[in-house]
Amino acid sequence: MSDVPGARRFGTGPLSRVSALIYTLLIVELLVLLTAAPGLVVLVLLNGGVPLMAVCLLPTGPALSAALYALRHRSRELTELRPATAFWRGYKLNFGAAMQIWVPYLLVLTLVGTNLGNFSAAGVPGWWAALLVVLAAGATLWVANALVITSLFAFRAVDVAKLAAYSLGRFPAATLANACLLIVAAGVTLYATEAALALLASVLTATLLWNARAMITEVEQRFTRQ
Fold it and tell me: pLDDT tens across 8-19, in order?
């Protein structure tokens, strides 16, 4: 029947596409947990200070970058699924670039967290705490854009940083959507645990990639050679 004109090939129907997406998300989730496991285990089991938390989160950056790469290059057909191959390719390609973005972000969070943790002893006005929270939220929205860009394109770190900052204002709908995603992630962490958030890594990453569609298109059209 496959030779009949207009006949649908196996693995290309709506149910197959949904199955392919679920399978890809599950595999990517397992690989994110595997690559980020050393830090996540310590983070969940130990009640350390902010610097230790930052060190524990170091492996998460390259893991999320590889997840973005794998989800971007995923096949829609059930018979052509190779999410693990795409994940490891993205992990190898983007490890260094992702760390160049992720490490400065963690340094900012460490400074913010340390200041908030010692806020009462510092004797500074209350608005300073609000400013620090805004700084941390802004840095998180920036790093979300930066990870998408550095995972899908080969730019210098300084150019990634500029494009990520530029995109915050250039695509306000995406920035707002990512802010909502950040609120959801904060809520999951607050009312559950960091482990629960880690179990949603592939879904949150897929949502981030979906929110970044307009940004990705503009970067492709304006900043890459066709």
Answer: 554 556 777 888
